[in-house]
Amino acid sequence: MMLRTFALVALAVGLAACGRDQAAEVASTEPPLATLTVEPGAAPRERVWDGVVEAVDQATLSAQTGGRVTELPFDVNDYVKAGEVVVRFTDVEQQAAQRRAQAAFNAAEAAFREAEADYRRIAEMYERQLVSRAQFDQATARRDAARAQLDAARAALREAGEQVDYTVIRAPYSGILTERHVRVGETVRPGQPLVSGLSLARLRVHVDVPQSDIDALREHGKAAVLLPDGRRIEAERVTVFPYADPATHSFKVRLDLPEIETGLHPGMTVKAAFVLGESEQLRVPVSALVRRSEVTAVYVVDGARVSLRQVRLGHRVGEEVEVLAGLSPGERIAADPLAARLWLAGALTERDDG
After folding, report:
1. Can you spell out the DSSP letters for 268-293?
2. CB 313, CB 290: distance < 8 Å
3. What is the DSSP string of 147-172?
4. Are 188 and 213 within one domain?
5. Name one GO cellular component term (predicted).
6. Strands 40-55 and 269-285
7. 46 phi and psi, to 5 degrees?
8. Is 9 a member of any domain?
9. CA distance 260 to 219
10. Nearest to 195 by CA among 294, 300, 87, 280
11. d(CA 221, CA 223)
12. What domain range includes position 226?
């Protein structure tokens, strides 16, 4: 660790020394380089906290009927499309119950047709005053009872069909299978967990924010996730939970991310930047930076002097990055660091040859 620190310090000193030497000995004419003037500008003031990524859609599928597991087509970490079968049970009992329900429905339907026909005959005869009111009421009651039995048989048939459907468990959405709670050949009962899974399409981030910053966070309601490659993923929605943890006195905040490819996975830790106000910041284009190992620098142009200067960076916003130290307002930097390097090398070569 000490050797690594010494190497970084030596590299930074070397960069600064190189910049001083080169700047002191180039020609007096101003270099033909495209430059940018560093000026402060109003920008959001942000604070960063760690957050944890989780899936919006994650569930454990449980059995809704009893049976023996006959098929588990997918293993842990397999990708499953929506609607694909993830568990299949034996359905002997369910199929038998469905056939009984179908037979009962057929009998109830026949009984209703007979009761309906009797009712119509009695009603016609009653209109001609050939039967008594009591006989007409009896026919009406038999028809209504038969209709009720038919409705009950239809409901029982529908329930029996659902029990058959419950022997085949399908994925409610596309995602990754994360856990299998049963094995092939195992007998399960209603309510027993079968498999767990989650979808990577919709993600969100949970962050614990100190109570001292929660009012400013609520006022602005803007946040972004900072990816390791420098990208920012703006949160579509910022939700502040209305209560604090009594142990840590922090509030839970949830960031809903857009459905784009982020490279994030549930369980990962990320940096979340929250807007708390505005401040004056110096920003430079990312394309103007020179990176050597863990040292970042820019080419500073001061008249005929060109020097390589180390800078300390803050947050990246789009194609610009905040400069925390190393530059002052009004200074000019080379827009193309490669062109500046080539010009500087050529100027030094001419000096040495002269």
Report:
1. -EEEEEEEEEEEEEEEEEGGG-EEET
2. no
3. HHHHHHHHHHHHHHHHHHHTTEEE-S
4. no
5. efflux pump complex
6. antiparallel
7. -125, 155
8. no
9. 27
10. 87
11. 7
12. 48-57+200-278
